[in-house]
Automatic annotation (TrEMBL):
Keywords: ATP-binding, Hydrolase, Nucleotide-binding. It comes from Reinekea marina. The keyword Nucleotide-binding applies. GO terms for molecular function: 5-oxoprolinase (ATP-hydrolyzing) activity. The gene is pxpB. This is 5-oxoprolinase subunit PxpB. It comes from the Bacteria. PANTHER family: 5-OXOPROLINASE SUBUNIT B (PTHR34698). Its EC number is 3.5.2.9. Residues 1-203 form the Carboxyltransferase domain. InterPro entries: CT_C_D, Cyclophilin-like_dom_sf, PxpB. NCBIfam families: 5-oxoprolinase subunit PxpB.
Length: 227
């Protein structure tokens, strides 16, 4: 593990884990221990694939003290298992119609398969939620099957509609809001992915699993989706 200064009130902890379901659990366990150790001086924790951003209150602690406390936690990590990981399976509905699947045909041609084969492969796999970032509710899900993986677009689109389901390399995700984006769009999900007024505010968390379900246009509209 390697600890570096990230800003005047944060450090970032890099770990050597390869992204996997086991590494998610180790990172979450480490987050739990950091919360317990730093207590009220902790402002925020942001885990990613192989790192954790630790933000702290500079009036209560400093970089050196935080670093020392984190290093002291490492020996106890192997015997600690996070109770925070629910590991639930979340099924997300997706409409894969051509009017919303902007890149589905291109992905199919790239791999010399039919669009229906792309949809089938995308729905059959169960994906791990590796990280949540870029925007609230944007979950990085992996990994898609190699025969539907696709490089990011050479130039990002100015606006990706909210709910767009996308593939980039061997990851897949749903855009929770209308934002710029360079991922390949294959469908649209009608579900709300982030609502700060609900608890929980997202349908999934790191450590959960996601499976996509193909739905019709009628079902998409009935569930609140917009074209």
């Amino acid at each position: 593990m390697r600890l570096e200064v990230a800003s005047e009130n944060s450090v970032i902890l890099y770990v050597t884990y390869s992204p996997s379901r086991a590494s998610i659990r180790r990172l979450q366990s480490l987050c739990d221990l950091i919360r317990l150790s730093l207590g009220a001086s902790l402002v925020d924790l942001v885990p990613s694939y192989t790192s954790i951003l630790i933000s702290f209150n500079p009036l209560q602690t400093n970089h050196r003290q935080v670093g020392q406390k984190v290093k002291e936690l490492i020996p106890s990590l192997k015997d600690y298992h996070s109770p925070q990981l629910s590991g639930k399976l979340v099924r997300m509905p997706v409409y894969y119609g051509e009017e919303v699947a902007l890149d589905l045909e291109r992905i199919a041609k790239f791999h010399s398969i039919k669009p229906e084969a792309v949809i089938t492969a995308h729905c059959q796999k169960i994906y791990d939620v590796f990280a949540i970032g870029f925007a609230p509710g944007f979950a990085y899900l992996g990994e898609v099957e190699a025969h539907i993986a696709m490089p990011r677009l050479p130039s990002p689109r100015a606006i990706i509609p909210a709910g767009s389901v996308a593939i980039a390399d061997q990851q897949t995700a749903i855009y929770p809001f209308a934002t710029p984006g360079g991922w390949n769009i294959i469908g649209r999900c009608p579900s709300v992915l982030f609502d700060p007024n609900t608890d929980p505010c997202m349908p999934y968390q790191v450590g959960d699993q996601v499976q996509f379900m193909a739905i019709s246009k009628e079902e998409f509209i009935e569930l609140g989706g917009t074209l």
